Amino acid sequence: SEPDLERHFEGTIARDARIEPRDWVPEGYRKTMIRQIAQHAHSEIIGMQPEGNWITRAPSLRRKAILLAKVQDEAGHGLYLYSAAETLGADRAELTEKLVTGRQKYSSIFNYPTLNFADVGVIGWLVDGAAICNQVPLCRSSYGPYARAMIRICKEESFHQRQGYELLMTMMKGTEQQRRMVQDATDRWWWPSLMMFGPPDADSPNTAQSMAWKIKRHTNDELRQRFVDMTVPQAEALGVTLPDPELRWNPERGHYDFGEIDWTEFKRVLSGAGPCNAERVAHRRAAHENGAWVREAAAAHAAKSRRGREK
Ligand code: ACO
Fold first, then answer.
1. From the CA of 144, how far away is ligand 1's center (Å)?
2. Distance 35 CA to ligand 1 centre (A)
3. Each residue's pLDDT tens digit, 17-42
4. Tell me, what is one Gene Ontology molecular-function annotation carried by this entry (predicted)?
5. Ligand 1 pocket: which residues have CB below 6 Å?
6. Atom of ligand 1 nearest to the CA of 32
7. How many other CB atoms sit within 10 Å of the CB of residue 202?
8. Per-residue pLDDT tens digits for 152-170
9. Interface ipTM > 0.90
């Protein structure tokens, strides 16, 4: 009966055990889990674009091989996240449809342009660094298929972060112009990276419920602070300045204080008016339309082999 099922669900959450696809879940849990997993999957797929843009212009074979591997990893992350959403009853074609018609979100960060190869390094360092910070706790998220997907994703994200940092270290040991490129890219990506963690806790409509259901293990502001604290020493080691005059160690709090984030810009990007929103979605839509014949052929082939087996 419904009360029994609900007790079982609440008990599973309270015991810190995993919810699995076979388990009954409240509609709200299903809805928010599909929402988060779909947005996450879309982010991985849209996230292939800013860097994919540089594959043909990588400065060496080594950098090209690294970048290709990284962008392929992102496709893989997107695909198994869509599979995780399917275990909750979501339809993958429908999720894609919602993405290409602008009815479902993806991370704000991928709506910024990549102007030169230093951006590839800074995306690895800051964007993938922020992604790891946000996703490592999700390995303990209450929904089993999502939490398990996060384990592999985080391992691959660590490689992405390291390749970025190593690229930047190399550039910082290069010419004055290369050092300027790294500083410029850092200036452009720092604030958008802080926005990746989502709105401040006071303006985050989903956090309280997602924390209660142990979908999220930390609030947006907690993870943002953790990211700032771990990134400041990395910036020092690299020799770049983070573009925030208010950034300083606060011995009382035991954390770095930092300046106010421009939440108007965040809202603008979320509403679809960021620098590259239209381009990103149009590119994804075109790829989807151009791939229609492949999906049709695959479906026809699957139907034919099924008929063959049934004979
Ligand atoms: N970009 C776009 N949308 C965002 C962002 C962002 N940076 N931050 C928050 N939002 C959206 C939320 O998805 C939510 O959307 P809704 O209209 O569907 O409800 C709304 O803004 C309000 O935010 P919150 O209530 O704080 O939402 P939530 O509890 O889901 O927290 C967060 C947002 C932290 C992003 C969470 O969903 C999460 O941890 N997701 C998994 C990680 C992820 O998606 N990473 C993708 C980028 S990293 C990468 O792919 C390399």
1. 19
2. 9
3. 999 999 999 999 999 999 999 999 99
4. phenylacetyl-CoA 1,2-epoxidase activity
5. 35-36, 39-40, 43-44, 47, 105, 107-108, 131, 134-135, 195-199, 204-207, 210, 216, 220, 270
6. 30
7. 9
8. 999 999 999 999 999 999 9
9. yes
